[in-house]
Amino acid sequence: MCYNASGTEKAKAVFIRKSQNPCTLKHIPKSSLPIQYYWNKTAYMQVSIWNDWLKLFDVQLRLQNHHIILLYDGASTHILHENTTLSNIRLHKLPSNTTAHLQPYDAGIIRSFKVSNFNKIHIIK
Q: What torsion do the CA atoms of 83, 84, 88, 91 make, to the nearest 10 degrees?
């Protein structure tokens, strides 16, 4: 999940599942979902997903003529590929052991988002 500091703007949330085509989304184009859908056998974030998301977000920001500083945590998957070039995003890694204090998502916001949006996705079918 990615929001600005005031919470007034947000990027599409990344949703990672184990199945490329889950039964609940069988006849729904993934591009129509209010999320960015990725899949892999573990349903975990991967370096390739991180880089793909950054590129897509950078294009969106470029079209809106927005430039941002993106604060991110030290997760092992948050590595930028050598061939990934970002024109409208400047990355800044948060200091170690500060994530829980600086990122409100660690206070249960992600869980609330998952619960509310999981129900919406199932309503779509």
A: -120
Q: How many CA atoms lie within 13 A of 45 on its CB side?
A: 15
Q: How much is the pTM?
A: 0.76
The answer to whether 26 and 112 have CB atoms below 8 angstroms apart is no
Which residue is associated with the tokens 């974030």?
A: 45
Q: What is the pLDDT of residues 53-66, one digit of tens each?
A: 999 999 999 999 99
Q: Note whether 74 and 99 are within 8 A (CB).
A: yes
Check residue 43 and give its pLDDT: 92
CB 4 within 8 A of CB 10: yes
- What length does the chain have? 125
Q: Report, as an integer, the average pLDDT of 85-106.
A: 79
